[in-house]
Structure formats: C-alpha cells, structure tokens
C-alpha cells in the first residue's frame, strides 16, 4: 500500500513539473515624454508646438501613443508656481491632440486624416483666458503628457510658465528701401539682445493669424527680393525668449511701399566703330540685366558734342550705319535700355570717317 501511494505521488509530481502555468500579461508600453515643445504667445492666443514621439518611453517602436493632453492653470503674477501634479488635475485639461495610429490597417477614409502621426509636428492653440494684458494679467502654466488607452500616462513635459503681463514693446522707426534686386525693411532696436519676427501686413494693420515671413531675427533688418509695381506692407514684432517660451509683443504700425523701377541697366562697353565703303560697322559688348529691352545707338557729327538717338532698342550687339555721307566724320555711342524705358549712360564715344569713293 505504501509503495502504491508513493508511486502515485511521483506520478503527480511528474505531471506537475511538466504543466505550464497561465501566461503572464505583457508589460504595458508607456508613451515617451514630449521632449521638444515650443510655447508661443502672440496677440490673444498661446500656440503649443511639439514633435509627436516616434518611440515609447523604453525606446521601443512603433509608438503606442494615442493622444497628447494639454493641461494649464493660472496664478496671479508673483504667486508661487503650481506643481506638476496640481496642473494635471482633470479640471485643468485644456484639450488634446489625437495621434494617427499608423499600425492600424488602412481603410478608405471619409476624408483626409488630419491627425499628426508619430514624428510629425503638432500644434495646439489655446484661446481661453489668453487675451489678458496689463500688470494684473496672470501667469499661465502648461504641462503636456502623452496618453495610451484610457488613462495610461507617460512622463509629463513641463511646467512651462507664460506670463501674460510681460511682453516687449512694439518696434518703431520702420523704413523700407529697395534697389534693383532687394527690398529691405529696417527698424529701431527695442532692447539689448532683442529678437524679432517680420509679418506681412496691410495698410490698415497686421493680421496676427498670418504665418511670419521670417524666422527669429537677431538684427533689426529684413530683406526679400523686390517686385516692382506691387504694393508691399510689412510689420514687425519684438520677441521675448525664455527657453521654449516665446512671447511676441504688439505689431508695429505697418510700413508700405510700391517699388518703382528707376534703375537703368549697366553701360555697354568696348564699342568699336569701323569705317567701310559707304557704311560704318559698330560692335560692342553685352550687358547683364534681367529686364533688358535692348541697345540703342546714338550718333552725332562734327565735334560729337551732341549725340542723337539713331535706333530703337534692338537685341543685337552690332549695327551697320548706312545712312552716311562719304568723307564725313561721325561720332557714336551705345546705351542699354530696360523694359520700363530706363536707359544707361552712353558708352564711351567712338568716331569714324566714312571713306570717299
């Protein structure tokens, strides 16, 4: 009997050793921290831009991120800043940016999917309570956090303080000048180490919703290619920079100009006048001008003090003057002319005496 019990015990033990238990659940992935946010306060809004993490918190890919939530609260200017946990109170949720899941099978969409994917740059605009100005305006504190599933959060990014009471003054002394190649806007510096952004404007003012024409500028000047005959209005805002937080001040009154082309082409050179039998052959070097209409030949007689226009603008670099009198000395010059009628200074004069029979 004892042997039978022992044998059955061994059989049970052997069966227990070979049995597999219930599989352990996989470790849940956590979203990575939003590592490069930029917080931009301009006019009556705060714009938050960030790159959607392309990996998870442990570096694995693909990203499991479902959305990025934006939290914010405000404090009076000079009051102690809230902690991250205080900002992350559910009542402080400002909004969320849904992330496109590129792992999901493709299905015919009802329309373009505008959601950012991992690796894309996303933007969230906050307009609630961001339009206050003046010394009693509060400080806004933002935190961004990635979410997986219903509530699995990644490491928070922030807090980022945006003081609404602090903004640089509008620049002054805006001036527009231009030449045949570029239009340049300059202004008076607002403060030491100040930075600036230039915006397209109208004569009535600047639309703060427009994208800036320039990146952050370190000097009070901005240039662009000139377009003659087209009205151009520009404005500029000073920028206060504190880490990832940029605060743009009010726009300067716009400066407008309509560039007019009054710039002649270069003067042709190397004019040569070769007298022949009943004619004078002229040759000269080309000039470089993007709106060149052609070359005009000028001619005079006697002392050559007064030269008159002999031809209309022509593209050739040579001309044969057959309207001559044998034995007469003629003086010649060539000028370049553009499409708007701007003529260069005449070239150096050359003389030629037509041969007699």
Strand content bin: 35-45%
End-to-end separation in angstroms reads: 153 Å
CATH class of the largest domain: Mainly Beta
Helix coverage percent of residues? under 10%
Query: What CATH architecture label of the largest domain applies?
Result: Sandwich
Total strand count, please?
22
State the major sheet: 7 strands, mixed
Mean pLDDT: 88
Query: Which stretches are poorly predicted, pLDDT < 50 over at least 5 residues?
Result: 1-19
Oligomer: single chain
Question: Order of helices and strands, N to C?
Answer: HEEEHEEEEEEEEEEEEEEEEEEE
Considering the chains and any ligands shown, give keywords for the structure.
357 residues, mainly beta, Immunoglobulin-like, 7-stranded mixed sheet, 5-stranded antiparallel sheet, 2 helices
Briefly say what this structure is:
This protein has 357 residues and is mainly beta. It has three domains: 38-104 and 114-163, Immunoglobulin-like (Sandwich); 172-257, Sandwich (Immunoglobulin-like); 272-353, Sandwich (Immunoglobulin-like), CATH 2.60.40.
Can you walk me through this structure?
With 357 residues, this protein is mostly beta strands. The protein has two helices and 22 strands. It has helices at 2-18, 84-87, and strands at residues 38-42, 45-51, 67-75, 93-98, 121-126, 139-148, 152-153, 157-163, 172-178, 182-188, 195-200, 221-225, 232-242, 245-248, 255-257, 272-275, 280-283, 292-301, 308-309, 318-321, 329-338, 350-353. The strands form five sheets. Strands 1, 2, 5, 11, 13, 14 and 15 form a seven-stranded mixed β-sheet that branches. The longest helix is centred in the N-terminal third of the chain and has 17 residues, at 2-18. The chain is elongated. The model is unreliable at 1-19 (pLDDT under 50).
């Amino acid at each position: 009997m004892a042997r039978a019990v022992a044998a059955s015990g061994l059989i049970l033990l052997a069966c227990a050793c070979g049995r597999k238990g219930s599989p352990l659940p996989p470790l849940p992935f956590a979203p990575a921290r939003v590592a490069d946010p930029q917080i931009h306060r301009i006019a009556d809004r705060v714009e938050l831009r960030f790159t959607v993490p392309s990996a998870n918190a442990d570096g694995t890919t693909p990203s499991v991120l479902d959305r990025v939530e934006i939290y914010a609260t405000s404090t009076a200017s000079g009051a102690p800043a809230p902690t991250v946990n205080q900002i992350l109170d559910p009542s402080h949720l400002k909004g969320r940016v849904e992330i496109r899941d590129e792992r999901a099978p493709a299905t015919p969409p009802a329309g373009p999917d505008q959601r950012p994917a991992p690796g894309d740059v996303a933007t969230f605009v906050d307009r609630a309570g961001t339009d206050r100005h003046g010394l009693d305006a509060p400080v806004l504190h933002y935190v961004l956090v990635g979410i997986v599933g219903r509530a699995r959060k990644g490491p928070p990014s922030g807090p980022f303080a945006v003081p609404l009471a602090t903004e640089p003054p509008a620049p002054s002394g805006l001036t527009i000048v231009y030449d045949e190649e570029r239009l340049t806007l300059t202004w008076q510096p607002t403060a030491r180490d100040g930075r600036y952004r230039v915006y397209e404007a109208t004569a009535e003012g600047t639309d703060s919703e427009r994208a800036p024409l320039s990146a952050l500028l370190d000097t009070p000047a901005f240039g662009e290619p000139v377009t003659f005959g087209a009205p151009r209005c520009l404005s500029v805002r000073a920028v206060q920079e504190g880490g990832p937080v940029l605060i743009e001040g009010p726009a300067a009154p716009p400066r407008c100009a309509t560039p007019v082309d009054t710039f002649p082409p270069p003067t042709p050179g190397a004019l040569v006048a070769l007298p022949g039998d009943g004619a004078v052959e002229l040759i000269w070097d080309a000039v470089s001008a993007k709106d060149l209409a052609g070359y005009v030949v000028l001619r005079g007689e006697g002392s050559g003090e007064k030269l008159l226009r002999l031809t209309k603008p022509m593209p050739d670099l040579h001309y044969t003057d057959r309207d001559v009198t044998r034995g007469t000395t003629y003086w010649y010059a060539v000028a370049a002319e553009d499409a708007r009628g701007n003529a260069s200074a005449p070239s150096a004069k050359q003389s030629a005496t037509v041969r007699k029979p």
